[in-house]
């Protein structure tokens, strides 16, 4: 009886789509590791900002993932035409065509015009998954830019475009934590008494350690999640309130589905399809996916928990878990206890 009640509760579709998850976000870090300048480039718009006397209301930002060099321009509108022109003038004409250009799924970047220009120049355009912009390094630059503009303009909010060159100079000559060097040193070898090749060799070594360190700390707050082709999942919804139809996002379901995994694109990106029609639902990062349980899968779920407990933690996670266990119980756990603790810690 108790088992049936548990299976009924676990497989309830209403509960699965309306109740929030209490687990850690899914998806361990998969860092992008460029090996040369302008191999990977990110692009994004900032704005709208107060329109200046010159008519500018947006900022378009390009960032090189290797050197951290930025190209920033104030523009009047955030359109595909502007993005394509700036890609040609600010990136291609100065640095050559990047191997990969990463952007979000904003309208200017998914247009046929922009795609045509980028592909014609020999660059592969890659889009971030919906509601997971962390892939695009430009997001971090945008925050820094807005903070710098805020410091410069004071109460003159329509004069922000006058300070773009000074802000860019400051960011290009400041040492970056990830590389240990300034972007100008990385790109031109001018800041320090060293050759450009030495700068690149140094940066590759430092970047490698930086990626490992960032992944270690990032993964402590994440859990591993993977799905097989055919698995049922639910996807996190992002509804918007609409006063005209008396619809409020606060009372809308938190998840939609069920969907069935149709393609695994990477360790963290999947393409699901609607379970009833087979219609493609797009590309999702695992942070926006959770298993969808039916009566049958709920009954199997209970029998596989012990099997999951046999997957041991590795690397820095072991040290972290040992420290946590020692702080709670005053001793170091054996391998079996550590494995069980790891399972419950990642599924709480």
Lay out the secondary structure:
Elements: H1 2-10, H2 13-18, E1 40-46, E2 58-64, E3 70-75, H3 80-95, E4 100-103, H4 112-120, E5 124-127, H5 138-153, H6 164-173, H7 183-188, H8 196-220, E6 232-236, E7 255-264, E8 269-274, E9 284-285, E10 289-291, H9 295-308, H10 316-329, H11 335-346
Parallel strand pairs: 1-4, 4-5
Antiparallel strand pairs: 1-2, 2-3, 6-7, 6-10, 7-8, 8-9
GO molecular function: nucleic acid binding
Protein name: Integrase catalytic domain-containing protein
Pfam families: rve
Q: What does it look like?
A:
This protein is α+β, with helices and mostly antiparallel strands and 348 residues long. Among the domains are: 40-192, Nucleotidyltransferase, domain 5; 231-297, SH3 type barrels. The chain contains 11 helices and 10 strands. The protein has helices at 2-10, 13-18, 80-95, 112-120, 138-153, 164-173, 183-188, 196-220, 295-308, 316-329, 335-346, and strands spanning 40-46, 58-64, 70-75, 100-103, 124-127, 232-236, 255-264, 269-274, 284-285, 289-291. The strands form 2 sheets. A 5-stranded mixed sheet has the order 3-2-1-4-5, with helices on both faces. The protein has a 5-stranded antiparallel sheet with strand order 9-8-7-6-10. A hairpin with a 5-residue loop joins strand 2 (58-64) and strand 3. Helix 3 runs parallel beside helix 4 (112-120). The longest helix is centred in the middle third of the chain and has 25 residues, at 196-220. The protein is globular, with a radius of gyration of 24 Å. Mean pLDDT is 78; it is low at 302-310. It comes from Acanthochromis polyacanthus. GO terms for molecular function: nucleic acid binding. Residues 33-191 form the Integrase catalytic domain.
């Amino acid at each position: 009886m108790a088992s049936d009640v548990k299976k009924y509760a676990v497989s309830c579709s209403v509960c699965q789509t309306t109740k929030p998850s209490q687990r850690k976000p899914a998806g361990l870090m998969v860092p992008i590791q460029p090996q040369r300048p302008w191999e990977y480039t990110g692009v994004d718009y900032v704005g709208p900002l107060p329109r200046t006397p010159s008519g500018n209301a947006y900022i378009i930002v390009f960032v090189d993932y290797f050197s951290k060099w930025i190209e920033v321009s104030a523009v009047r509108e955030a359109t595909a035409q502007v993005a394509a022109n700036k890609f040609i003038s600010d990136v291609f004409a100065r640095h050559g065509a990047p191997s990969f250009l990463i952007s979000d799924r904003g309208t200017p970047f998914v247009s046929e015009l922009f795609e045509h220009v980028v592909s014609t120049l020999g660059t592969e355009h890659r889009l971030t998954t919906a509601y997971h912009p962390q892939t695009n390094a430009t997001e971090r630059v945008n925050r820094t830019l807005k903070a710098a503009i805020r410091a410069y303009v004071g109460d003159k909010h329509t004069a922000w475009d006058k300070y773009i060159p000074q802000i860019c100079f400051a960011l290009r000559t400041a040492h970056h934590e990830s590389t240990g060097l300034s972007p100008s040193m990385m790109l031109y070898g001018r800041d320090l008494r060293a050759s450009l090749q030495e700068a690149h060799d140094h940066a590759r070594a430092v970047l490698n350690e930086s990626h490992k360190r960032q992944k270690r700390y990032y993964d402590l707050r994440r859990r591993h999640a993977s799905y097989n082709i055919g698995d049922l999942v639910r996807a996190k919804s992002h509804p918007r309130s609409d006063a005209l139809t008396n619809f409020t996002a606060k009372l809308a379901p938190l998840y939609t589905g069920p969907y069935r995994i149709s393609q695994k694109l990477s360790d963290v990106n999947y393409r699901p399809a609607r379970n009833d029609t087979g219609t493609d639902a797009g590309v999702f990062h695992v942070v926006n996916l959770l298993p969808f349980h039916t009566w049958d899968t709920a009954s199997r779920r209970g029998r596989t928990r012990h099997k999951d407990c046999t997957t041991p933690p590795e690397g820095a996670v072991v040290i972290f878990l040992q420290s946590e266990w020692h702080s709670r119980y005053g001793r170091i756990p054996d391998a079996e206890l550590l494995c069980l603790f790891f399972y419950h810690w990642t599924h709480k």
